[in-house]
């Protein structure tokens, strides 16, 4: 069973990734679930989760995209369905209907395309296509969220009566308005609205003459607002009908709620499914942002990361427009533990975090930014000790805390554990701390654990060099500039460049020299040897790159020569055929010439015709008769060849047309460009010419140009300025 602690997740900044995925969700529940993403519990679940994300990621290339999964939360409605006697409002039923329709759409889609999305089809397979709830809700509530008139016979009759009474109210009010207006009882405004009721604006002096209920008066008291008696009667009737309508709507909603109660668990499943799909879709969007892919998942104990990027660093640098360096690293049965060394700020910690974060992301069902040929296994435990973990709460120093951490590592690590330790053994006396760290490393090794650690301790580098399934690696540095290259070099330990970096940062050489004397000569020589080896490796890499470039160029030249050779061979064959054909024609011409000379001398026609026919028969016997089928095939082949030639020539023609058009535009621009006014002493040349001379004299639109060896008279408009004369 896979169990990765929350500390390891925090050390590797996994919650930051979850937060970024949460921002890509479109539903509230999806956002909550994304924030709580954790690695799956076992191999089967992990592979299933990865395939879910991968299928959704690949759906963007399909003609029929996966339907929209958005929904409004129905959590309050689900709670109400669990309370006896409760009634859900119309808006709640609209949300329940919408979520049911969305799920049914997904069920139909994945059933239809189950061959394309087998894993996503399996994800929704526990639910059944059922429209009974939506049919019942949609039979009562319309798409605008209003109760339908025909929701029940009583409601239909009530609404008809309401519309009828409303009509009577309007007609009775209009009648009263016309009557009292004709009597002159009304003010200029005639009517108004008080408490949502139409009223007559009656002059105060005539208020007793108008029958009806007084609803109020104006601020000045000059107008009294009266509802006509007939209108008042109909309004009371309308109020009674509207009350009955509300009661009927409540009854229908209560009935609908009772009908929906058995669907409570189904609706909860619907909400869970769509929020899960929301998280899968967000993982897919995140993969698109970080160029994520699904590497090969293997049950063998191996980790082969090629061109791996730290996703958070990649996105951060992308926003800044900066380059992110990828890393390639391999762990396997023959190389289980890697000790990375080298100077600080060379990228050791980020390499460690990249490997750990990508492993956790993969085991949480996310696609990761690596080369598609990468291979990865799954680890049951990922143990991390990264950064300064000083415990203020427990009053522990950094070293004490790290020792507690190491104790936990020693108890938990096994052959299915990946441990990642930054600055292994630091925090105590270098010699004693180094010795303890070496012992810890030996235990990890004996337990067949996989791991990567960074260190400056020479004894750990030495141990990695001695043990068979352990290796050294270093973060490469440019020896000249002492700048990091951000490339991991496997196979040898790295120098810390302690004194070199100190010198680069302005520490006086005299102090560095004094420091060197305080350190054992052997250690300095060892560090110097490592630095020298790194330098040689760097030079060797440059030489290798150079040789590789030359090899590629040589291969390219070879291909070109072979192509030229093929063309020459083809031409030679063509010339040979032409030569043979010409020789045959010369031979025939010679024969005919001999016959004509013979006929010229003896004038014997029969003999001439006989000899000529003999020649024709000999030539025809050499020709092979071709069948109609072969002739057709030949013609088809010629036609195909012609088409291919045409196809190859067409882009060249188009290119030439474009080039010609560009040249014409340039010429037009140059023609329209105002010419510089030429004067004596200017250095000039003829348009489209190369020879440069200087103007001696200018007369009547012509200039005498001196070229040194000779002079010539040229029209001014044919000259262009090269260099103006110095004043």
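^ structure tokens above, recovered residues below v
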């Amino acid at each position: 069973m896979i169990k990765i602690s929350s500390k390891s997740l925090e050390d590797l900044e996994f919650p930051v990734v979850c937060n970024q995925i949460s921002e890509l969700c479109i539903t509230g529940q999806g956002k909550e679930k994304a924030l709580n993403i954790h690695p799956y519990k076992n191999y089967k679940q992990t592979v299933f989760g990865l395939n879910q994300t991968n299928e959704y990621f690949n759906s963007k290339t399909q003609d029929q995209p996966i339907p929209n999964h958005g929904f409004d939360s129905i959590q309050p409605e689900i709670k109400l369905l669990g309370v006896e006697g409760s009634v859900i409002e119309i808006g709640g039923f609209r949300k329940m209907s919408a979520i049911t329709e969305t799920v049914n759409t997904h069920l139909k889609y994945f059933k239809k395309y189950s061959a394309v999305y087998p894993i996503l089809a399996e994800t929704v397979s526990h639910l059944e296509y059922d429209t009974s709830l939506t049919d019942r809700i949609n039979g009562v509530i319309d798409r605008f969220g209003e109760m339908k008139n025909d929701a029940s016979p009583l409601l239909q009759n009530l609404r008809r009566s309401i519309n009828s009474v409303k009509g009577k109210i309007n007609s009775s009010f209009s009648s009263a308005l016309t009557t009292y207006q004709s009597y002159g009882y009304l003010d200029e405004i005639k009517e108004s609205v008080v408490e949502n009721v139409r009223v007559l604006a009656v002059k105060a002096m005539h208020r007793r003459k108008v029958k009806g209920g007084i609803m109020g008066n104006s601020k000045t008291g000059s107008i009294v607002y009266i509802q006509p008696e007939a209108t008042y009667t109909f309004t009371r009737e309308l109020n009674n009908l509207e009350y009955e309508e509300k009661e009927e709507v409540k009854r229908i909603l209560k009935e609908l709620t009772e009908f929906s109660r058995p669907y409570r668990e189904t609706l909860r499943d619907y909400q869970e499914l769509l929020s899960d799909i929301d998280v899968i879709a967000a993982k897919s969007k995140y993969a698109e942002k970080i160029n994520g892919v699904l590497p090969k998942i293997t049950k063998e104990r191996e980790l082969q990361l090629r061109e791996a990027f730290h996703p958070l660093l990649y996105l951060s640098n992308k926003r800044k427009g900066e380059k992110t360096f990828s890393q390639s690293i391999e762990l396997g049965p023959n190389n289980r533990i890697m000790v990375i060394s080298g100077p600080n700020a060379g990228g050791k910690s980020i390499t460690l975090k990249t490997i750990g974060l990508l492993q956790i992301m993969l085991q949480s069902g996310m696609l990761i930014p690596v080369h598609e040929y990468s291979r990865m296994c799954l680890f049951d435990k990922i143990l991390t000790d990264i950064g300064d973990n000083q415990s203020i709460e427990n009053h522990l120093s950094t070293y004490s805390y790290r020792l507690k951490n190491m104790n936990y590592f020693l108890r938990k690590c096994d052959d299915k554990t990946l441990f990642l330790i930054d600055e292994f053994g630091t925090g105590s006396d270098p010699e004693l701390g180094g010795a303890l760290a070496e012992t810890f490393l030996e235990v990890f090794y004996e337990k067949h654990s996989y791991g990567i650690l960074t260190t400056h301790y020479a004894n750990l580098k030495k141990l990695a060099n001695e043990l068979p399934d352990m290796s050294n690696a270093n973060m490469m540095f440019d020896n000249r500039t002492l700048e990091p290259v951000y490339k991991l070099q496997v196979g040898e330990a790295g120098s810390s460049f302690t004194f070199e970096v100190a010198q680069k940062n302005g520490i006086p050489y005299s102090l560095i020299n004094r420091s060197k004397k305080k350190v054992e000569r052997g250690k300095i020589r060892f560090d110097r040897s490592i630095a020298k080896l790194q330098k040689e490796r760097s030079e060797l890499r440059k030489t290798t790159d150079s040789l590789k470039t030359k090899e590629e160029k040589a291969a390219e030249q070879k291909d070109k020569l072979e192509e030229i050779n093929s063309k020459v061979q083809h031409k030679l064959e063509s010339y040979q055929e032409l030569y043979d054909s010409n020789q045959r024609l010369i031979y025939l011409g010679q024969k005919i010439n001999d016959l004509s000379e013979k006929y010229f001398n003896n004038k014997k026609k029969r003999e001439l015709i006989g000899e000529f026919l003999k020649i024709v028969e000999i030539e025809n016997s050499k020709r092979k008769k071709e069948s109609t089928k072969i002739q057709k095939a030949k013609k088809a082949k010629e036609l195909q060849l012609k088409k291919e030639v045409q196809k190859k020539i067409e882009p060249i023609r188009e290119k030439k047309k474009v080039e010609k058009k560009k040249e014409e535009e340039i010429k037009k621009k140059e023609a329209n460009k105002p010419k510089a006014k030429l004067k004596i002493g200017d250095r000039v040349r003829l348009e489209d010419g190369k020879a440069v001379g200087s103007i001696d004299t200018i007369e009547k639109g012509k200039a005498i140009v001196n070229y040194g060896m000779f002079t010539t008279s040229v029209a001014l408009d044919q000259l262009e300025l090269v260099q103006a004369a110095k004043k």
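Residues 683-723 form one domain.
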